[in-house]
User: Fold this.
Amino acid sequence: MTTPMVSAKGVTKSYGAVDVLRGVDLEVARGEVTCLIGPSGSGKSTLLRCINHLEKHDAGELRVDGELVGYEARGGKLYERNDKQICSERAQIGMVFQRFNLFAHMNVLDNITVGQIKVKGLSEDVAVDKARALLERVGLSGKEANYPSQLSGGQQQRVAIARALAMEPKLMLFDEPTSALDPELVGEVLDVMKDLARSGMTMVVVTHEMNFAREVANSVYFLDQGVIEESGDPAKVLSSPSSDRLKLFLSKVL
Amino acid sequence: MTTNGDTAVQVVPVRHFGRWIASFFAVIVVAMLIHTLLSKIPNGQVACHTVNAVRTCHNVVNWRFSWNVVFHYFTVSEIIHGLGLTLLLTVISMTIGITLGVAIAIMRISESRLLSSTAWSYTWFFRGTPVYVQLIFWFNIAAIFPLITLGIPFTHITFFHLNSVTFFTPFTAGVIGLGLNEGAYMSEIARAGLIAVDEGQIEAASSIGMTKSQTLRLVVLPQAMRVIIPPTGNEVISMLKTTSLVSSIGVVDLLGAAQNIYSATYQVVPMLIVASLWYLAVTTILSIGQFYLERYYAKGALRTPPPTPIQRIRSDVRGITSKFRTPRPAKESR
Assistant:
């Protein structure tokens, strides 16, 4: 059996007195799309951010590609990884944010090449070629010289996806990628994500787009108050929920 | 809205009567100012001539602002040398100040308590004591520490030593005093810039694997510059004039040179005008530089960069000339 891309066992996280994650178990197989759904404050974004160590989980075991996130197990002890090791872990995990977070002072091309050049050490020519290919893939050829402020939200988010893909990640995390978009722009971003899913990318997506989850996801996890309430095949989970909380949630969002 | 087909509708812009009246008074005030600047006053002497055995006398008049004296001393070598020293002091002190300020600001926002409290203490001390006192202190440091040595504390092992008397010349003392003081002010300006950068930018940089120092250099600082530059321009201009304090420790800067001249000639006001005109000239050049620097760092933050002064003048001229042509009627939208 191959190791799953992401596995979480009993992951907890609290901010002061607030328990955000209270023992979360999750498994994401290679090449699969997993959607995390749930009401706001349920801990889905926090879980996602723990996976690439933007947040430090307090307890439990969290592995990406078989490796512990943020720690190294040697001789029965856990050694906390240093900054450099964490950075090289993160470079292999792409992340797309709700608020796009494109580098505001760089044009589109530089946004996509900076990581390749400065983090992966690629030459500028190679990086630019790759950036152009990715821009074509997300349907934004010709926007190389534009600054993020000159693009629509949907365009910015597609550039953000290209920026993450440029690092050739083994896993892509999406944190509510369409929540900050005008309704008519949601489709263009979801189309890029569907295309990515078809190409075999392993994806973990925090989303409120139930149709996307139903159509693309291999599995859906419903989080509520820091625990996984229900999980499984999207068709089953979303069409015939067994828990009352999920029923209530779906009745509000669908 | 009614549809008028293609019939043109004349648009009458709002009339700003208040502005017209204010402009009228502004013109009068400017005229008065120019008149005063160019006026002449009797200097108390009477000059008499005898032409064809007729003796005529009249009061001798001088420029009110002694422009002939100002003009004469404007480019004398003492003044130019003083100006050079003032510029050198400003450039070196600001370089020290900005470098130190950015470093202290980064230390201040560090997670390390040691670094952040060190940075806080530095700012507290250097901002909390008068720069004048600090200058005098560095000037007199040789009396307190005649020899400065680098070695292992509490042993007799030394690697390097410095004779304070020869090292701390008035100029060095001035540069160090002004630079260290400026570092404290610049650190707060730089910190304001750093914390103004959106947290999401830092997260995005982390998410593609940038280290903390790469994030700072490639993402945070370039964006912080936009916030840092206007107050830094202020600091440079303020430093230009603060450097005149060094005349108290014996450096003959621009103001010092002017003072030296008027203490011999008693032409106090004209010499101060000479110095002020030079300060104004340098400030003008610095302000122009600041404008273009701001414009450079605004890229990405504004959809269209602000027009340069030349572009603005051009569009103003275009606006004025178009008023004298037949007004182009606006078409009503359909």
Notes: The CA atoms of residues 46 and 59 of chain B lie 4 Å apart. Chain B touches chain A at residues 198, 200-201, 203-212, 214, 218-219, 222-223, 297, 299-303 (CB under 8 Å).
